[in-house]
Amino acid sequence: LVSVLSSAIIVYRLPWTWKCSKVLMKFIHAGLNTIAMILAIVSMVAVFEYHNASNIPNMYSLHSWIGLTAVIFYSLQLFFGFAVFLLPFAPASLRAAVMPIHVYSGLTIFATVIATALMGITEKLIFSLRSNPAYSESPPEATFVNCLGLLLVIFGIFILWMASRPYWKRPPEENAKALLPTGGSPEGTEAESAMTDSGNADKSDLRISSEAARKQNLKLDEAGQRSTM
């Protein structure tokens, strides 16, 4: 879940994917998340079966509580992501409103998964290294798992940093067409601009003609006054 979910998070932020179409990247993002969800479900089933076979109580530790919460929210994230962003039924306004929530919840779930993994490996060490040797004696197993935990923290920080930096974002030029009005096109925009310019020109010509006519009337009035005098 940690490795595949992190790949799904940064798939939009890899420069060599910016040349690919947005639709293709959406399917890759959704596919990676689906694989991560399947692996999470398989691992949870394996855990419950192992606990039941070994007469170990289920869902009593903080690790299990947070882990199950992360999986539940991840399934909701996946469902709403499919419904809003992948299927072509949601309006653009809804997608724009949901996108910040989708990004924030995805990063939060990823951070929660990292925390769950850290609690899980620590819990396993405490249960396994009770004596001969004890965890407090820092045997090789404890050193190895502690180093693994540090690497998980560094990896999580790197993914969150990469996902939050503006210069790692997909260039907005890829979505330039989506910013046009419904049914609009660059040609239509140019035509509207030309019509506007033409209208302004007509108004300018009309003002010039009116001014010329006014001056001509003044000259005629002056000529009439002179002839009368």
Automatic annotation (TrEMBL):
Membrane topology note: Multi-pass membrane protein
Intracellular or extracellular location(s): Apical cell membrane
Task: Write down the chemical reaction(s) this protein catalyses.
Answer: monodehydro-L-ascorbate radical(out) + L-ascorbate(in) = monodehydro-L-ascorbate radical(in) + L-ascorbate(out); Cu(2+)(out) + L-ascorbate(in) = Cu(+)(out) + monodehydro-L-ascorbate radical(in) + H(+); Fe(3+)(out) + L-ascorbate(in) = monodehydro-L-ascorbate radical(in) + Fe(2+)(out) + H(+)
Which GO terms of the cellular component aspect does the record hold?
A: apical plasma membrane; lysosomal membrane
Which Enzyme Commission numbers does its entry carry?
7.2.1.3
Q: Which UniProt keywords apply?
A: Cell membrane, Electron transport, Heme, Iron, Membrane, Metal-binding, Oxidoreductase, Translocase, Transmembrane, Transmembrane helix, Transport
What residues does the Cytochrome b561 domain cover? 1-164
Q: Which GO terms describe its molecular function?
A: metal ion binding; transmembrane ascorbate ferrireductase activity
Concerning Pfam families, the annotation shows:
Cytochrom_B561
Enzyme class, UniProt record, top EC level:
translocase
Region of interest (Disordered), ranges: 178-229
Question: Composition bias, kind Basic and acidic residues: at what positions?
Answer: 200-229
Cofactor(s) in the UniProt record: heme b
Q: Where is this chain primarily localised?
A: membrane
For this protein, the parts annotated as crossing the membrane are 23-45, 65-89, 101-122, 142-163
On assembly, the entry states:
Homodimer.
The name of this protein is Plasma membrane ascorbate-dependent reductase CYBRD1
| Organism of origin | Nestor notabilis (Kea)
